[in-house]
Specification:
The protein is α+β, with helices and mostly antiparallel strands. Helix content is 34%, strand content 11%. It contains 12 helices and 8 strands.
Length: 300
């Protein structure tokens, strides 16, 4: 059945598929507890620690976790003011549709098959699941790195009640050149695979509360109004990363958002125009705030 799963995934363009065990993940619990104790969390994470390490609290009869990677790198674009992962329509929409196809395929193959599919919207730590499923290894920038696509991948996972054979983590690590540490606009990367996400420029672009003076400086250094690509751009593992094989990520692309464009829309109009984009979820107000910060860059 695992081979049938992989064959079906390949037919719909998904090259990287692995199986993670259903937990509980006690090694992850120790890591998360330490991070929380140091204040290394943003509040956007699942608040219940047990849900982050125990899939059975989300799906009671879970037996295994199907994990899929979705490469998203498209053409190189100079002077884009949004992160590469937001160029296409919202990746949640693209990936959720593919995960549902996998789930429905397996329902037709396995009697009594049940599943729950998530893409960046579930309680579990998706990068940890990808690691456990043998699909990649961690970089100092906290990203999952793959041989073919570097770290330019999204992660989706399917909790299910079928006992697929588990995969094993890769015995690999990043080059540890520390370029990501040196170039991070907020000095959020601390070495030894640790990170203070509250200093991450990507988080700051999505922060709802007013920005501090230090956060404004970080945002200006990043040059982005949503997300931040710097720690990936400087990573040697991404130097020869291949472009995505999934056509959806190269269609209907947007690379820059102007202040004039955003100001021309009402809140409802902004949602109608950009509601199917990953950068739109915080709304017009936050995007306009970030544009104002970036546009003041040369006036300091």
């Amino acid at each position: 059945m695992k081979e049938k799963l992989k064959e079906f995934c390949k037919d719909i363009g998904i090259e990287a598929v692995g199986i993670a065990p259903p937990g509980p993940y006690h090694d992850l619990e120790a890591i998360l507890t330490q991070r929380i104790g140091k204040g290394y969390y943003t509040g956007m994470e699942e608040k219940d620690l047990e849900k982050r390490i125990s899939p059975c609290l989300t799906m009671e009869n879970v037996q295994s976790v199907i994990v899929c990677l979705f490469p998203y790198l498209t053409d190189a674009v100079e002077n884009s003011n949004i992160s590469k992962y937001t160029y296409s329509i919202d990746y949640h929409l693209i990936i959720q549709e593919k995960l549902q196809k996998i789930g429905e395929f397996l329902k037709g193959q396995i009697k009594g098959f049940e599943y729950l599919a998530f893409v960046d919207n579930g309680p579990l730590v998706d990068r940890y699941l990808a690691y456990m499923a043998g699909l990649g290894y961690f970089g100092l920038n906290n990203s999952i790195i793959t041989e073919k696509y570097g770290s330019y991948v999204f992660i989706g996972y399917i909790l299910n009640n079928y006992l697929f054979e588990f995969d094993r983590p890769l015995d690999k690590q990043c080059a540890q050149c520390e370029e990501c540490l040196k170039r991070c606009p907020g000095n959020a990367l601390l070495g030894n695979y640790q990170m203070d996400p509250t200093r991450c420029a990507s988080y700051i672009t999505q922060k709802k509360e007013d920005l501090s003076k230090e956060e404004i400086k970080i945002l200006k250094r990043s040059g982005k109004i949503f997300g931040c690509d710097i720690c990936q751009q400087v990573c040697p593992h991404n130097k020869h990363a291949e472009k995505t094989n999934l056509k959806e990520f190269g269609q209907d692309t947007v690379y820059n958002i102007s202040k004039e464009d955003v100001e021309s829309y009402s809140n409802k109009g902004f949602k109608k125009r950009y509601g199917n984009r990953a950068f739109s979820w915080r709304g017009k107000k936050i995007i306009l705030r970030n544009l104002n910060v970036i546009n003041e860059k040369n006036n300091d």
